[in-house]
Amino acid sequence: MLIGIYLAHLSATGMRIDARLIGMLGAVSFAAELVASIPLGLVSDAISPRWLMVAGALIGAVAVRIFALAPHPWLFYSSRILDGLAVAAVTPPLLAYLAQSTTHSSSLRARVMSFFELSLLAGWLGGSMRVDGLLLGTMMLAILALVLLHWVTDNDSPQTCATLEEIHESSRI
User: Fold this and answer.
1) Is 93 found in the same domain as 131?
2) Which of 48, 70, 101 is the last residue of a domain?
3) Alpha carbon separation from 4 to 10, 22, 26, 116, 154 (Å, rounded)
4) Residue 119: which domain range?
5) Cα separations (Å) of 79 from 23, 118, 137, 157?
6) 0.70 exceeded by the pTM?
7) What is the rounded CA–CA span in Å between residue 127 and residue 3?
8) Is the predicted pLDDT of residue 9 greater than 50, yes or no?
């Protein structure tokens, strides 16, 4: 979202930004994430996943800074590759951590994974509120997300839920 706003700003100041550049920037990021996810998932099994998640966050911060440094396409591509690597470094260990933390309850695991996915959706929804003309659509999607959240968290059998302390104790890495 912010990348689109930044590129629109650069285009307004005279830099040539075309659809090919924008499409390639998205593809490069997702390709880097796709290629790096499995190797970085294996690395997270060999070292502490927490260190890999911290490294991914730092790489992501560097990627954002590089993107804003100078309006040159090769810097844009470098930044988006680093962004894909950052996501690949964070996501597999995070999902493994969530799965390990909920091994005692399959219903809790389903809810936790659903919350993870809903948090991604909430980020996209929040970002789209910034764009003119999408406010109504965003509000409708937000209502849908709330309905899904209620459906996912509706618990008919409270005895299957673990306490926060139980989750914390079972998730020590």
Assistant:
1) no
2) 101
3) 10, 8, 10, 25, 37
4) 106-173
5) 15, 26, 30, 47
6) no
7) 11
8) yes
